[in-house]
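Notebook, bench 3.
Goal today: get a predicted structure for Ergothioneine biosynthesis protein EgtC from Pedococcus aerophilus so we can plan the truncation constructs. The sequence was checked against the plasmid map this morning, with no discrepancies at the termini. Length recorded as 231 residues. Pasting the sequence as submitted so the record is complete.
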Amino acid sequence: MCRHLAWFGAPRSVASLVLEPGHGLLTQSWAPRRQAHGTVNADGWGVGLHPDGGGAAARWRSDKPMWSDTNLASMAPHLVAGRVIAAVRSATEGMPADATAAAPFLHDGWLVSHNGRVDRDAVGPSLAAESACDAALLAARVVAAGPRRVGATLHEVAAADPDSRLNLLLLSGDELLATRWGDTLFLRRDTDGVLVASEPDDAEGWEEVPDRHLVTVTASGVRIEALLATS
């Protein structure tokens, strides 16, 4: 289990999104309020962004607890973008423990984070996966199948593993996709953008996304719809 968030909007610093909010992602790494599976998220963290003006996505990942990394605290105010994704990790038992297993994963320009668990046999092998962990395999499969048919892909995976939890964030330079499937997901519409997260920080204005629903955010606005088995 993990906690994660994604921002789609005007440029903001990683510090303002991750470190500074009351009960933000940093606090959720040691004291989550709505995490039903696991108690802390101390098995790594990651931040990814699409630079404003274009260019390749950039990532910074670690296998250490977020609260222990003094370099992040000093650099995060200087990492600024309008497309940001971040996650803290609680590793599923038996999964790899190195930084390559920490989200976000990167495939075909999409930054991907998985909050949940899934049997690796239900996902299937992938030479494109960045790690042997369940989240990396799922990220590779979803992007390979096409992010816009994410509903069909998740239904296929869940049919093979009915106990799976399949909350995903997929972020490109032009679009944010967020799924709720088996865990919590919340949405906040600010005047300058949209924030999606596993659980709210202390700011007002959060709305809960229904289970088995997809959030799509583009420059045109926000759409929330049921995750369908066909696309």
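The two ends are 28 Å apart (CA to CA). DSSP finds six helices and 13 strands in the chain.
Flagging this for group meeting.
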